């Protein structure tokens, strides 16, 4: 029986290992983490993350060939293959602050593996890491090896939150990078044998280490670039009376471009896009490629511009002030079908509105009040450090309340901002919402989920990203 151990029980490690356990019943899989509360949650009926389909997979395998434990060293010692899926946050101080990845947790994991290992091991990079991380990890392991052989592989994840389980069941590709040595290629084959139990062979790609590491950063940068491209067009659509949905549909019909990731919105979020692009920028700068670095920086700039443009549109439309006005925020997660709030555009939008003294009432079907308050209290990049290093009991912001119902959130509000594209927001009783709001009643749709014409018939003044402007809004231009 092959023994697999994964260090890190987060959004990547938990679901990935659960699916490996389901698809490979002859493999023993143990997920380890030093966070006791997180491991307890994985062993309970209330998993620590929300992901459609994850519950069923975990319950099928847990206690059979899938285990969650805080005894990190024991299970690393017993493993043949060790996946490392720890945080790689953006550095907040020192060399490369604000751009470079902080490899503190990776390095300590590598040193611990070297300390406890009593047999040869394959060590697999699963978290997103900068190019050449494997080289650094290799040095730590070989200099502390005590005669034990380690092979380092890069096996980046390409999961989309909200569809992670389906992505794992039926991946576009599995990428495995290894050293081009006999030992490196043997290790690649061993990991390939695990995935080959359910992934067609032509979808398992093998490359050298550096190509695998860079492919992950490149994939996320390309996806984020598409979102920033359509968001840049959305601003032009509003200025000219074009409709960004029609433009995106026409553009996406070109088979060279395709329709995916062309939905205009208030901006992209999630744990990877901004972090990986900043990382890419830093690597380019370190290699003297300043024009390339500036190109990728612009993707982030457009994303920040889109969020501030949205806030400015809200404030300028409401007589240039939201001071003391109740603004309902529907959706706080960075996308539908996940409770993840890392880098969600909602944080910057809410902070912008609170900065103008708005009173916010927030509703999201999967995000807790504690999480909302923590996110609004946290400094940039702190979210990516382990929970015990984050603010434990965030101070409640008196301008912010969290509701458990969209109708409660919108009652007596002057405006509604839709910041996550949850399906349920499409079918709300907007007539009921309108009747309970102050007039004029505004809807600012940051995800293009509502039927603009229907809402205008009810009486709302509607702003929808990249759509022809309401006559009211034309008279009140947003200053960017």
TrEMBL record:
Annotated pathway: Nucleotide-sugar biosynthesis; UDP-alpha-D-glucuronate biosynthesis; UDP-alpha-D-glucuronate from UDP-alpha-D-glucose: step 1/1
Catalytic residues as annotated in Swiss-Prot or TrEMBL: 272
SUPFAM superfamilies noted in UniProt: 6-phosphogluconate dehydrogenase C-terminal domain-like (SSF48179), NAD(P)-binding Rossmann-fold domains (SSF51735), UDP-glucose/GDP-mannose dehydrogenase C-terminal domain (SSF52413)
Domain annotation UDP-glucose/GDP-mannose dehydrogenase C-terminal: ranges: 328-452
GO BP annotations, alphabetical order: glycosaminoglycan biosynthetic process; UDP-glucuronate biosynthetic process
EC number assigned by the record: 1.1.1.22
GO cellular component, one term: nucleus
Keywords recorded for this protein, A-Z: NAD, Oxidoreductase
InterPro entries, per database record: 6-PGluconate_DH-like_C_sf, NAD(P)-bd_dom_sf, UDP-Glc/GDP-Man, UDP-Glc/GDP-Man_DH_C, UDP-Glc/GDP-Man_DH_C_sf, UDP-Glc/GDP-Man_DH_dimer, UDP-Glc/GDP-Man_DH_N, UDPglc_DH_euk
Enzyme class (EC, first level): oxidoreductase
Alphabetical list of SMART domains matching this protein: UDPG_MGDP_dh_C (SM00984)
Catalytic reaction equation(s): UDP-alpha-D-glucose + 2 NAD(+) + H2O = UDP-alpha-D-glucuronate + 2 NADH + 3 H(+)
Positions contributing to NAD(+) binding: 8-13, 33, 38, 86-90, 127-128, 161, 272-275, 342
One GO molecular-function entry: UDP-glucose 6-dehydrogenase activity
Pfam family, any one: UDPG_MGDP_dh_C
Similarity-based family: Belongs to the UDP-glucose/GDP-mannose dehydrogenase family.
UniProt-listed NCBIfam families: NDP-sugDHase
Name assigned to this protein: UDP-glucose 6-dehydrogenase
């Amino acid at each position: 029986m092959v023994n697999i151990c994964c260090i890190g029980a987060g959004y990547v490690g938990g679901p990935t290992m659960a699916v490996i356990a389901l698809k490979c019943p002859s493999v023993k899989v143990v997920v380890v983490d030093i966070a006791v509360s997180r491991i307890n949650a994985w062993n309970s009926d209330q998993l620590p993350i929300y992901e459609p389909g994850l519950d069923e997979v975990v319950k099928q395998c847990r206690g059979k060939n899938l285990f969650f434990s805080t005894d990190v060293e024991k299970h690393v010692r017993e493993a043949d293959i060790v996946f490392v899926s720890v945080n790689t946050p953006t550095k907040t101080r020192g060399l490369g602050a604000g751009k470079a990845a902080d490899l503190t947790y990776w390095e300590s994991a590598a040193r611990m593996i070297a300390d406890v290992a009593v047999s040869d091991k394959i060590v697999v990079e699963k978290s997103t890491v900068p190019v050449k991380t494997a080289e650094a990890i290799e040095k730590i392991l070989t200099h502390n090896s005590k005669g034990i052989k380690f092979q380092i592989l890069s096996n980046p994840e390409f999961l989309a939150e909200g569809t992670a389980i389906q992505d794992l069941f039926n991946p576009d590709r599995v990428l495995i990078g290894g050293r081009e040595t006999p030992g490196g290629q043997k290790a690649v084959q061993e990991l390939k044998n695990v995935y080959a139990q359910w992934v067609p062979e032509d979808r398992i790609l093998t490359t050298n280490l550096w190509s695998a590491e860079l492919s992950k950063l490149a994939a996320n940068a390309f996806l984020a670039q598409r979102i920033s491209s359509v968001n840049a067009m959305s601003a032009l659509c509003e200025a000219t009376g074009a409709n960004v949905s029609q433009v995106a549909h026409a553009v996406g019909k070109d088979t060279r471009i395709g329709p995916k990731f062309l939905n205009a919105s208030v901006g992209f979020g999630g744990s990877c896009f901004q972090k990986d692009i900043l990382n890419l920028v830093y690597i380019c700068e370190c290699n003297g490629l300043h024009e390339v670095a500036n190109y990728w920086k612009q993707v982030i700039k457009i994303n920040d511009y889109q969020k501030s443009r949205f806030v400015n549109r809200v404030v300028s439309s409401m007589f240039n002030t939201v001071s003391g006005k109740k603004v309902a925020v529907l959706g706080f997660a960075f996308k539908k079908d996940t409770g993840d709030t890392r880098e969600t555009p909602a944080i910057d939008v809410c902070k912008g509105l609170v900065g103008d003294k708005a009173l916010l009432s927030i509703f999201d079907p999967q995000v807790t009040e504690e999480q909302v308050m923590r996110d609004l209290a946290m400094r940039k990049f702190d979210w990516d450090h382990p929970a015990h290093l984050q603010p434990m009991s965030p101070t409640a912001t008196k301008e912010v309340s969290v509701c458990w119902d969209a109708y409660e959130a919108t009652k007596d509000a002057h405006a509604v901002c839709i910041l996550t594209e949850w399906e349920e927001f499409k079918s709300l009783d907007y007539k009921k919402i309108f009747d309970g709001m102050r007039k004029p009643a505004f809807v600012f749709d940051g995800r293009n989920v509502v039927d603009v014409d229907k809402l205008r018939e009810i009486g709302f003044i509607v702003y929808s990203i990249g759509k022809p402007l309401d006559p009211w809004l034309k008279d009140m231009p947003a200053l960017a």
